[in-house]
Each structure stands twice: as C-alpha cells, then as structure tokens.
TrEMBL record:
Lineage per the UniProt record: Bacteria, Pseudomonadati, Pseudomonadota, Gammaproteobacteria, Oceanospirillales
Name of this chain's protein: Diguanylate cyclase
SUPFAM superfamilies (alphabetical): EAL domain-like, Nucleotide cyclase
Organism domain of life: Bacteria
Domain HAMP: 195-246
The entry's keywords: Membrane, Transmembrane, Transmembrane helix
Organism of provenance: Marinobacterium aestuarii
NCBIfam families tied to this protein: GGDEF (TIGR00254)
Chain segments annotated as transmembrane: 7-27, 47-66, 171-193
C-alpha cells in the first residue's frame, strides 16, 4: 500500500472515530431530550387526569372514569391507561388494540378481548406485562387523592417508538452529514498531501531510480521544511556521487604515476581520432616509445627513482607535442603517442625526432645525472592499418624492430615486419617441440690454457637443427626461449645432457676437464640449486667439473637473493664465471659484491688487438685487476696468432676462439679428449 493511501486511511479513521463519537454524543443528548419531552407530556396528562378523577371515584362514576381512561389512551404515543383504586384493583382501563405490543401481550397471557372482557385481575396482569422491559414502554404512575386521602392511581404506558424513530432519523441525518464532511476533508487533505508531501517524495523516488540507471539529476527544493531538507541532502549526495564518479573516471583513465592517459583512455582516443580521420580523409600516426635501459635505473637507484624518472620523462615528452596530440603511458616504461591531423610523413619524423631528443637529454635524479635512451616504432593510418588494434600492434612491432642491433632508434612499420612476427611465432611454436623431437644438440668449444696449449675443458654450446630451416642461430632462438620461459626446460635438458656425458667420458677413462654451461636469469631464479644437486648425485660426478657462466644482466635482480644463490652453488663445489665482461652495467661493482672464480673478456674487446692501443691498455688493466681479485681470466673470440700472443704476454690465463678450435659435436669433442689441440697452434707458428 502506498504512503498516500496509508495516510488517507489513517486520517479517515481518525476523522471517522472523532465524528462517530461526536454523533454518538449528539444522538445520546437528543435522545435524552426527547425522552424528557415524552416524560413531561406524560406527567402533564397524568396530573390532569389525576386532578379531575377524585370526584368520579368518590361517586363511583365508572362511566366518567372510563371516559377519562379513553381520553388518556387517545393521546399520541400512549399505549394504555388504567385507573386503579387504593387497593390496586383496576376500576377502568383502555388499551390501544392496534398496537402490536398490546396484541403480543394479550397473546402471551392467552387473553381474547372479543370473546371475554378483561377482568380486573387480567387487567392487572396485562398492565404488569406491558410495563416490563420486553416492550420498551415508558410506564408512569400518578396518584389520585382527595385531600390527604389516597383514592388510587392512574397508570399510563407511553411508547418510545416515536422517540426511537426520531433518534434513527437524526442518526441517519448526522451520519450523512458527517460522511460528507469526512469525504470532503479526506479529499482536501489528500490533494494537499499529494501536492505538498507526495509530490516532493515522488520526485525524490524518481530521482533515486534514475541514480540506479546512471542519471545523476538533482531535484528542485520547493520548501524549507523537512522535505526541503531531505531534497537538499539528496542533492548533496548526488553532488558527492558526481565528484566520486569523476574521480573514479579519472583514476580509471589516467596513469597514477604520471597523470597521463592510460591504455584504456589511449585506445578510446585512438578510436575517436580514427573516426575523425576516416570522416575527413586525414593521416594519423601511432607512436610506441620504449625505454632501453630503464631497468638499470630501477635496479641501481631503486624503484622510487625509477618512478620519478618516468614522471619527469612523461612531462618532458608532453612538452614536445602539439596541443591536439595525446601522450599515454601503457605501463612499465612504454608510452604511446597519437598524432592526429598530420600533413605528411616528414611531420611525423620531426615529432618523433623531438621525442627521441627529449628522452636523450640529461636528467638530474637524486643528485645524479641520468641519461636514458629509447626505441620508437611508428604506424600510419591508413597505410599500416585501419583499426586501433592493428595500428597499435604494428607500431609495437616497429618499436621492437628499432631495438634490434643495427637499426635506428626510430623505425616506421613495414609489411615485412609482419612476416617477421609470423616467423617468430612459428619459430616459438617449433621451439616448444624441439626438445621432444630431439632437434637440439650440444656442441663443445675447447678452452685452452695460455702458453701451454693444454685444454682444460670446453664451453657447452647449444645448436638447433630445424627440420625445415636448417641450423638456427643461437642468437635467434636463445632470446626467444628466454622471452617465452622455454629456457627453463631447455636449460634443464642442457644440464642433464652435460652431466650425463661427463659420466660417460669418465667411465671411458677420458679426462673431459671442466664443462662451462651458460645460465640464464630465469634459471637462476628458479630451482637451479636442487636441479644441479640432483644431477650431480644421479651421475656421480664431481661438482667442480661444472662451471656456470652468467652475464651481468642476471645480476640486476635482487642482489641479496642472487648472492645467496651463488654462495650455495660455490659451496656445492661448482665454479662460477662472469661472462661477456665489460659489456654490461656496473661490472666493477659486481666483482666486489659477488664471488666469482673467473671472468671472461668479451670478444668485442679482442677483435682490435693488438693494433688498438686503447684496447690493449684496457685488456692489460682487466687482467691485472682480475688477478688481484683472485680471478682467472678467459679471453673469448681469439681468431689470430697476434691476438693469442698478445693475450699470453698480458698474462691471460685461458683462451677460447676459432684460432684454437671451432665448436665441435659430441663425437668430435670426445675424439680430442685423449690428445691436445696444440698441434694446430704449432702449425700456425710455422706458417
């Protein structure tokens, strides 16, 4: 039941009860007044008859008494009139035989006035019965006396029927009047309540329903009472919801760190700009920007510094754009730029160059000077795609192409890149099956002791013989394996094969020396210790026959965890070497922080020897420093006799390269184990 209906029912009930009580009081008062009037009329009549009857009673004039009784009964509302003597014996009487109550009393007393006249006793019985409460009569008695001498009584029975009729008539009239009053008052109250109360309430209810539908409309405040206060409170709530929605919308569409639009908003704007570009036949450019060495800043200076760098860089990039352009942060160190309404490709190149210059400028970060570099990929509408997904994917492909060695930091998308992406995806699928199909194979490149030309072991290399594409370059599939996580099962397979071969060669009585195995960052983060421990135990080989090589980028992660893992590996007896020394970041700090057994000088430092004087000085310094730190030095990429001789003169401990031996298959390497590879070096000397 609605509020208005309940209110009207309550008001109607209150009015009805109030008016009913009022009507009852009025009718009751009216009834008492009428009964008083009836009594008064009866007393007047009775006193009159009692006053004139003594003479007739003294003279025993019954005819006169009968006439008096008849005269009394003729009066309106009088049912009977009886004159009795002092002893109570009726002397004369008159009964209204048309009155149903008289007929009923006669029938009850088994009296028939047609056949037998009333005797005084029967008359007394009839009067007694009619005076009872059965017939609702008003019995009245008036004494008849002569002086002080009582002669008898006049008994009169007056009907209340007329009284009741008037009362019912008054009740009907009052009920009708009060009903009309109630109807009028309820109607008036209903319309006033509906307009002044239910109107604002209904508006509030409608506004509340609209809130559920997402329509935040305020309601009009039409009064200063409680309903007005309720409307003001509702409007305040709507205002607060709007502010909260605006805040949530901003948070959902903006990056919390840089306050730039996020991926969601960038896609939305890209869809909008694409619609405008189609409509006006305009060019549109999508630019992907990725920082090349952001992780270094994060790992060396902390995440807080990295966050500040991103915020500073976002502001700097934004300052290089036009007002109509959009700069968004996609996440991590990736940014997206939308260039609508461009005139030609040259304009895109100019803006991309400004963005590249912005990232390359020096920045002060925590009182330190920092320089970051980026790779930029560009896709154009409509040449490189007509949908947001296609343009973003192609710009992303171009950006990754810019990261590859030999490419400029700004790269425009070409259709050939999609071919490369498809080839990469196919290669990734094939790599999943390479281990199961037996397509992976171990190669061994011997490492010899400088000066004595005696092999002390070999570096384990991985080769992939693809059934359709032939030999896949490790520089191609190793990064792919690391990016997809396949390096974990592949690395486990390499360790399993290497330890199994060591056991096999030892069983043959051969001396394979130490096998150096490359370890990736993902392997070091996983269960490497337990894997090696299980393999060493299973194949019963000395742990010191294994040497783990790792590049400096492995050490960029949690230093405490990495240091703990390396200490555990060394405690097992394994040897550790730092590979590609000098090409990574903060190499000297890693030599102090982590415990290594050897370091391997990258081939890029060997290529110019001995003609490169700076390179010669650098090699000499590295060897001296390593020896003072108790580290063995291995030189990679030795390809000429001059390089070999120079490295020996500088005190390099071990050599590795094509001059000494090329990577060999398992069988070829096994064949060299009983002998040395130095005859080749002697032959070179003779040449």
């Amino acid at each position: 039941m609605r509020l208005a209906s309940r209110f009207i029912l309550i008001v109607s009930g209150i009015l009805s009860v109030t008016l009913a009580l009022n009507a009852y009081y009025f009718i009751h008062s009216q009834n008492q007044l009428l009964e008083q009037q009836l009594n008064e009329r009866g007393r007047v009549l009775g006193h009159l008859i009692a006053l004139i009857s003594p003479e007739a009673m003294l003279s025993f004039d019954f005819l006169t008494l009968n006439e008096y009784a008849r005269e009394v009964s003729r009066q309106r509302d009088v049912v009977y009139g009886v004159i009795v003597n002092a002893k109570g014996t009726p002397l004369t009487s008159f009964f209204n035989r048309q009155d149903p109550r008289v007929l009923d009393a006669l029938q009850a007393l088994d009296l028939d006035l047609e056949t037998a006249p009333l005797t005084p006793p029967k008359t007394a019985q009839l009067v007694t019965r009619l005076s009872s409460s059965l017939y609702d009569l008003l019995p009245m008695e008036f004494p008849i006396s002569h002086g002080d001498r009582p002669l008898g009584q006049l008994k009169v029975g007056i009907s209340r029927e007329q009284l009741h009729s008037q009362t019912q008539r008054q009740l009907l009239i009052q009920s009708s009047i009060y009903g009309l009053i109630i109807l009028f008052l309820c109607s008036a109250i209903f319309w006033v309540f509906r307009y002044n109360v239910m109107g604002p309430v209904n508006r509030l209810m409608a506004a509340s329903r609209n809130v559920g539908l997402g329509e935040l409309e305020e309601v009009a405040v039409t009064s200063s009472d409680e309903l007005g206060s309720l409307a003001e409170t509702f409007n305040a709530m709507i205002h607060a919801i709007r502010e909260e929605q605006a805040k949530l919308h901003y948070q959902a569409n903006h990056d919390a760190l840089t306050s730039l639009p996020n991926r969601m908003m960038a896609i939305d704007r890209l869809e909008h700009e694409l619609h405008q570009a189609r409509r006006h036949n305009e060019l549109l450019a999508v630019i992907f920007i990725d920082l090349d060495n952001f992780k270094v800043v994060n790992d060396t200076m902390g995440h807080a510094a990295g966050d500040e760098l991103l915020a500073m860089l976002g502001a700097r990039l934004l300052s290089r754009l036009r007002d109509v352009d959009t700069l968004a942060r996609l996440g991590g160190d990736e940014f997206l730029v939308l260039l609508p309404r461009i005139q030609n490709i040259d304009e895109v190149k100019q803006i991309a160059t400004r963005l590249l210059e912005a990232t390359s400028e020096r920045m002060m970060l925590y009182s330190r000077e920092v320089i970051v570099h980026c790779s930029i990929g560009i896709a154009l509408y409509p040449d490189d795609g007509i949908s947001a997904e296609e343009l973003m994917a192609n710009a992303d492909n171009a950006m990754y192409q810019a990261k590859t060695p030999g490419h400029l930091p700004i790269c425009f998308f070409t259709q050939e890149m999609n071919v490369q992406v498809r080839q990469r995806l196919q290669l990734e699928q094939d790599l999943h099956l390479a281990v199961e199909r037996g397509e992976l194979e171990l190669y061994f490149q011997p490492i010899v002791q400088a000066g004595h030309c005696r092999p002390i072991g070999a570096e384990v290399l991985l080769r992939w013989q693809h059934p359709q594409n032939g030999t896949i370059n490790p520089a191609t599939f190793i990064p792919l394996a690391e990016a997809t996580g396949l390096i974990i099962p592949i690395g486990d397979w390499v360790l399993q094969q290497a330890t199994s071969l060591l056991r096999h060669w030892l069983d043959l009585g051969l001396a394979p020396g130490t096998l150096a195995i490359n370890i990736s960052r993902l392997q070091l983060q996983e269960r490497l210790i337990s894997v090696i421990q299980d393999l060493v135990t299973e194949h019963r080989i000395p742990a010191n026959m294994l040497e783990l090589e790792m590049t400096e980028n492995i050490l960029l992660d949690d230093h405490a965890k990495i240091s703990e893992t390396l200490d555990q590996l060394q405690a097992m007896g394994l040897k550790l070497s730092l590979d590609d020394f000098g090409t990574g970041y903060s190499s000297l700090s890693y030599l102090r922080r982590f415990s290594f057994d050897a370091l391997k000088i990258d081939r890029s430092f060997i290529q110019g020897l001995p003609q490169d004087q700076d390179g010669c000085a650098l090699i000499g310094a590295i060897v001296v420093m390593a020896h003072r730190l108790g580290l063995r030095v291995v030189a990679e990429g030795v390809e000429t006799i001059e390089q070999r001789d120079f490295l020996q003169q500088q005190g390099c401990d071990y050599l590795q390269g094509y001059l000494l031996a090329r990577p060999m298959t398992v069988d070829a390497y096994q064949a060299t184990l009983p002998s040395q590879v130095c005859p080749r070096l002697s032959k070179d000397k003779e040449m």
